[in-house]
Write a structure and sequence with these properties.
1 helix, 14-stranded antiparallel β-sheet, 24-stranded antiparallel β-sheet, Membrane-binding protein, Outer Surface Protein A, domain 3
Length: about 500
């Protein structure tokens, strides 16, 4: 009899346990589903007046645990500490709640398990605490940082390398957005500061990974540079400049420390301006690794400008006299002379010029041919002068080299880029598909499709009206309207979607 009684008690206890602990299955969006389709599952059990929730990944790893007074999925009312975990079982975040509201300590950790946020939330929703980011060059995080918050606003940020007391800079932000930044060099040596307040300031730039000084500049109260030094990555001086009450100078060195340029300034006390007078003015790219340009001065005027590409290769040499351009030489990446353009009255006169991805050919002061290319050097468009017809004839291609548009344009209308005038032929799959006539940006006849940043617009002339249809990037019609063509000067006010500019033809599509 005693054995029978014990078995009955055990069965009763087991039945309570099974009844108390419930399991629910969820899909990837935390919507209830069946066990065979689940990505997560939840187990719940009573804990006094609250319910303990334990969520698990599909493989049984704990995803979240915490107490709640309401366990409705996606609308839980948590109470106390709630912890979330990564699929690998690492703590992802710990948050404290009071009756469903985030109040108290909260910690968040990054993928490596490092603390990224340590704050305390107040009942009004604001918080105090600290956030952290860590160096990770693969994800473009080149420095460590720490930011302190008060009432949800950043009041102090420190950008540093390995040691928070070593090389770094600290920005302290006060009321009304006013700030002060303190700069430190090797071993934490204080260098100076800059602020949003008027007066003499300092700015220090740093190379990343490892952090080291790239530039130090000191400014006068009017914001002009008083003195500055640029350092190479190996710590040698690349450039130094200084301006005093009488004159100034800028000296440039190569990475071995050899002097390669020296520019002298002349100070005009009446205008408080420093004028470059004689010598070479070297400019560097943003990370100071390459020379971007050199201006050569003589008696206060530029007589030579050299321009370089991102790899430090010479692109062009502009020759000037009395501040007037006399000619430009263009060079290939191998250093060979590519072309020469002569100038007359400070305007291109004869030769082929290269501007970005465009090639411009001049003859007797007239632009006779323009070619534009894509980044991978495929021909994007060509615009030729037809002297017998006194017109420009243009062809525009897509990225596969197939014709998308051709147009003719009167010679005297070539300079009016915005109020485009011309006869356009539109192509589909390389074959003519329609014609349109445009005068000063207004469609006169025909129909045309143009690719825009937010989709496609289709214009068709119908009497005094222009029928306008706008499609989004998915091809869905989002606007179907009509615009009076003859609206005078107001036609181009604002962003009139019915206006046609020459540049619209170059946003090509197939």
């Amino acid at each position: 009899m005693k054995k029978l009684f014990t078995s009955a008690i055990l069965a009763f206890v087991l039945s309570i346990h099974v009844y108390a602990q419930e399991r629910t299955y969820f899909d990837e969006n935390w919507e209830k589903t069946s066990q065979d389709k689940m990505e997560y599952y939840r187990e719940t059990s009573p804990k006094g007046k609250l319910t303990l929730i334990k969520d698990f990944y599909k493989n049984g790893t704990l995803q979240m645990e915490g107490l709640a007074s309401d366990i409705t999925p996606n609308n839980e009312v948590f109470d106390g500490k709630v912890t979330w975990y990564t699929p690998e079982g690492k703590v992802m975040s710990i948050v404290t709640y009071s009756n469903g509201k985030q109040v108290g300590p909260a910690q968040t950790y990054d993928e490596a398990g490092k603390l990224s946020e340590d704050v305390i939330y107040k009942a009004d929703g604001t918080f105090n605490g600290t956030s952290y980011t860590y160096k990770d060059p693969e994800n473009d995080y080149f420095y460590n940082s720490m930011t302190v918050f008060e009432n949800s606003l950043p009041v102090k940020t420190i950008i540093y390398d390995e040691d928070i007391k070593g090389i770094r800079y600290e920005t302290i932000t006060g009321k009304e957005g006013k700030y002060e930044t303190k700069f430190y060099g090797d071993k934490g040596k204080y260098l100076g500061s800059g602020s949003s307040e008027p007066g003499e300031n300092m700015l220090v730039d740093y190379y990343p990974n490892p952090m080291r000084i790239s530039k130090i500049e000191k400014y006068k109260s009017d914001g002009s540079v008083k003195e500055g030094i640029i350092y190479s990555k190996n710590g040698k001086i690349l450039q130094e400049q200084k301006k005093n009450k009488k004159d100034g100078y800028k000296t440039t060195y190569d990475e071995s420390g050899n002097k390669i340029g020296h520019l002298v300034y002349q100070y005009d006390k009446a205008t408080d301006v420093y004028t470059p007078m004689d010598g070479e003015d070297y400019e560097f790219n943003n990370d100071y690794t390459q020379i971007s340009s050199i201006n050569v001065y003589k008696n206060g005027s530029i007589i030579l400008n050299k321009s370089y590409d991102d790899n430090g290769k010479l692109l062009s040499e502009k020759i000037l006299k009395d501040d007037v351009t006399e000619g430009i030489k263009y060079y290939s990446p191998d250093g060979k002379l590519r072309s020469t353009v002569t100038y007359k009255d400070d305007l291109p006169y004869e030769g082929t010029a290269y501007e970005g991805l465009s090639e411009l050919q001049y003859k007797d002061g007239i632009l006779v041919n323009t070619r534009t290319y894509t980044e991978d050097q495929k021909l994007k468009s060509e615009k030729k002068l037809n002297t017998s017809k006194n017109t420009y004839e243009a062809t525009i291609y897509n990225d596969k080299g197939v014709i998308v548009y051709t147009f003719t344009q009167p010679l005297n209308e070539n300079e009016d880029y915005y109020n485009f005038t011309g006869q356009i032929v539109q192509y589909v799959k390389g074959k003519p598909a329609g014609k349109a006539s445009v005068k000063e940006g207004i469609l006169q006849s025909g129909k045309i499709k143009l690719k825009m940043a937010n989709g496609i617009k289709e214009l068709e002339r119908n009497g005094k009206w222009i029928l306008l249809k706008m499609y989004n990037t998915d091809g869905k019609l989002v606007q179907d309207s009509k615009v009076l063509a003859d609206t005078g000067e107001d036609y181009f006010s604002g962003e009139n979607q019915a206006a046609i500019q020459e540049g619209d033809l170059f946003d090509i599509f197939e």
